[in-house]
């Protein structure tokens, strides 16, 4: 017997998205720690507008999935079987971008803080107190290039989900309190 209407279609649930959502959640926890640390070491304790934009965009893609899976009105394109996976992956890409932007800000802030402190001391004092100062400075300068290189490698996909090393349970080290020398 032919039905005059299509029988109701069973709405997919979030169950099938759990592996991708777990990846997103794990990445978010790591990125959030980087973002908070970046704000902590910023000279003015400011949030980076670009980081906030990336987090907003990540949230938008995640909400598209939730609306498609449990909302009362499916968004355009939600009938595509890859809709949820594609949007979760886009959300992951935005989380990566937010983390890399936070890392850029962290490296810049730390370089500024270090320069402010060491500028107060003669080179002879620095060499005595911190014998490997120039090695440390060189490594810090190299970090900027490494962050950018990883950002380009990551792009918006996540072929390497463990770009960020796992942080210790205690989190990132507290931001050092600037030391002012007498000059």
Overall mean pLDDT score? 80
Taking the sheet with the most strands, its summary is:
none
Termini distance?
93 Å
Query: How many whole angstroms does the radius of gyration measure?
Result: 23 Å
> Tell me, what's the shape?
elongated
Relative helix content = 55-70%
Give your account of this protein's structure:
With 183 residues, the chain is mostly helical. Helix content is 61%, strand content 0%. The protein contains five helices and no strands. The protein has helices at 18-41, 49-70, 83-118, 123-129, 133-154. Helix 1 (18-41) packs parallel to helix 3 and helix 3 (83-118) runs antiparallel to helix 5. The longest helix is centred in the middle third of the chain and has 36 residues, at 83-118. It is elongated and about 75 Å long. The protein starts with 17 loop residues before the first helix and ends in a 29-residue tail after the last helix. The model is unreliable at 156-161 and 165-183 (pLDDT under 50).
Properties at a glance:
183 residues, mainly alpha
Topology:
Elements: H1 18-41, H2 49-70, H3 83-118, H4 123-129, H5 133-154
Short recap of the structure:
The chain is an all-alpha fold and 183 residues long.
């Amino acid at each position: 017997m032919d039905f005059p209407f299509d029988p109701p279609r069973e709405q997919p649930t979030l169950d099938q998205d759990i592996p991708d959502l777990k990846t997103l959640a794990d990445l978010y926890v790591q990125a959030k720690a980087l973002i908070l640390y970046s704000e902590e070491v910023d000279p003015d304790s400011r949030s980076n507008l670009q980081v906030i934009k990336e987090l907003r965009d990540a949230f938008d893609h995640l909400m598209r999935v939730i609306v498609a899976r449990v909302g009362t009105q499916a968004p355009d394109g939600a009938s595509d079987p890859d809709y949820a996976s594609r949007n979760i992956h886009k959300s992951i890409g935005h989380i990566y971008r937010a983390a890399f932007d936070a890392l850029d800000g962290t490296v810049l802030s730390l370089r500024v803080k270090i320069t402010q402190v060491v500028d107060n001391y003669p080179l002879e004092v620095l060499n005595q107190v911190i014998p490997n100062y120039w090695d440390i400075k060189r490594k810090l300068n190299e970090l900027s290039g490494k962050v950018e290189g990883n950002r380009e490698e990551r792009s918006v996909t996540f072929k390497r989900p463990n770009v960020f090393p796992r942080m210790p349970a205690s989190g990132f080290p507290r931001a050092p309190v600037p030391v002012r020398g007498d000059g």
